[in-house]
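I have been asked to look over a protein record a colleague put together. Thanks in advance; the entry in question is below.
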Amino acid sequence: MNKIPVILLAAGQSRRMGGLDKLMQEVDGIPLLRRAAKTAQTVGPVIVALPPEPHPRHDALSGLDVLRVAIDDAAEGMNASLRGALKHVHPDAQAAMVLLADLPDLTEADLTAVLRARATHPNHLIWRGATETGKPGHPVLFDRKLFLPLSKLTGDQGAQTVVRAYKDKVHVHALPGQRAVLDLDTPEDWAIWRMHRSP
């Protein structure tokens, strides 16, 4: 069994969606959050950082074998979610993958490719997906040596502080198209994505 967990960050507030929840938008007939969790499950055990209950996002994960972690201080930003989820990573885990829940085009193959990059480039501490032209994005795989600095992050900048501090130990793995960076933050983004998506 793959011991590397996937931390799915899904406690954000969708502030730019005009009252809608981007993670509850349907993709392939199910909420984006559920779809992201099912994709993550294909590569390892999944820890999902969520807003406190009651919240529809908890219901969206009903029946899935994932660990749901309520982030009481989610309003602080992304790093509250990261800190909260890291507490639940198994102590024997040699690495952890961090994945944003709002990247609708990422596939099982993409996550697997970044996991494999750890084996083919073992002298690094961070392995991350990128666009086909090399722009860094998600998912991001962190060696366990970085769990401590990650657990001390605050604010809403994600793990960029740690990534910059270890920039010489980052391997960037190109994924097809814009999958690694394409997020949908506004109703307009969703409309454009749906219009151009292949049936």
